[in-house]
Design a protein that fits this description.
With 132 residues, the protein is an alpha+beta fold. The protein folds into two domains: 51 residues, no CATH class; 62 residues, CPE0013-like fold (Roll). 19% of the residues lie in helices and 35% in strands. It is built from three helices and ten strands; from the N terminus they run H-E-E-E-H-E-E-E-E-H-E-E-E. A five-stranded mixed sheet has the order 8-5-6-10-9. Strands 1-2-3 form a three-stranded antiparallel sheet. The longest helix is centred in the middle third of the chain and has 12 residues. It is elongated and about 70 Å long. It starts with a helix and ends in a 12-residue tail after the last strand.
Amino acid sequence: MSKLRSLQTRHLTCLVCPLGCSISVKLKGLEILGVDGNTCAKGEAYARDEVLHPKRTLTSSVLVLGGQWPLVSVRTSGPIPKAKIPAVMKALKARSIKAPVKMGTVIIQNVDGTGVDLLATREVGKERRRRP
């Protein structure tokens, strides 16, 4: 393989602050050779982390048993490694919670060993019984 083929440039838009800098990261394999285009040190740190260890905050929903709504919206309490998203989604699919659900309730603690909790983002009351 030639040296030119192993060199690559990734282009990112920084999400750390409102400036939205266009950042270029030069890579050789998993080694970062340089970061250009960032206005601040936070942008450089973001670009390095995004290229080598991408993370995302996950939002989804979980089944509610006996609730006024069939699902409750959930999100991770912080970003998780992007590679762990399929495993976390599988854990979500297998999970259900009984109503009532309070906003901020921990649905799954330390989801898939990430050190991040899965939290309810809304309240779901118990199903109201209808009068005959």
